Amino acid sequence: MRKIKRVAAALLVVTALVACDNQPAPSAQPASLPPCTDATTQNCWGRSQWRDTSVSIAAPGPTGHVQRVPIKLIGGTYHVPVAIDNVCCLPAVLDTGASDVMVPIEIWHAMMRGGRINKQSHIGVETYNTASGQVQGLRFILPPIAVGDSSSRVTARNVVGVVTKSPGQSMLLGQSFLRKFKSWSIDNSTNQLLLSY
Question: How confident is the model at residue 197 (pLDDT cuts 50, 70, 90)?
Answer without folding.
Answer: confident
